[in-house]
Structure prediction request, 308 residues.
Amino acid sequence: MLGEDFINFCLRIMPKKKTEDTENSWRKIPQSRTRRKSSPLARKRSLRTLYLSSLALLGIAAVFVLAAGGWLLLREATRSLSQGLQSPVLEDEKVLFQTDGYLTVEWLLEELALTGAHQPIFSLSLTELRERLESNGQVDKAILAVLPPDRLAVRLQERKPVLRMVARNSDGERMRLLVGQDGLVYEGYGYPLPLLRSLPHVDIDRVSHSDHGFGQLPGFPQVAELLRIAEEETPEMYRTWRVVSLRQLPKIVVQSDNVGQAIFPDRDFEENVLRLRDLVRGTRREGYDRLEMVDLSLEHVPMRPSSR
Prediction:
């Protein structure tokens, strides 16, 4: 009996067998549905891949556009060159002309002998044309360029006249000439008459002349400096200057409405111009119309006023 009771006791305390399938029981446990977050490094790699892909696409597009543009430019240049080789230089419309002085397109075409010339624009020698222009005394500097298909661009810098003179040519004919700031003597073209009349005359023994034109006056850097200072510092007095004589170089002698002869040394121009202005004013205050002679080359200026 004891054995039977013990067996029954053991059967009571033993765990009962589970009726459900233990293999599937874990599915009934609540599970978390949260996605795993991507790391910053992964996001950075994705953006870099997208950036590089975009750059590649843009590069391919740029190459295509440049190739197409180059082809169009080459076609247009070839067409323009073909037209330019067949276009003669005949009229003003073919010339783009600019100057800082008084020369005109008509003068330019005649000077370059291009009027009526059936000559291809691209066959012109720009160096030869530039030298031809600059051989004219009124032209200080010339710049030329060919503009496809059939135009010539010309830009001139002209000399500014500071004196005028009258000379005779080999045939004895009188010639009205001008003197530039660098002392070069030349025949002027297109200057308005009031401008020419405002220039003082120059008095000199002779002017050199050759087949290439006139030469430069001697000692002119000092003369040009005196004229510039007088015009800037005393414009009213400068407008009364009538003759500038170079016969006593290095001294410069000026004849004006107020002074018969004002003798300037080749130095201290600003100081002496102002001294002359003050002397003229003082003479007027004393009742004299003008001074006959003032020698500014001396420390104590001798003056000889005219009679009252």
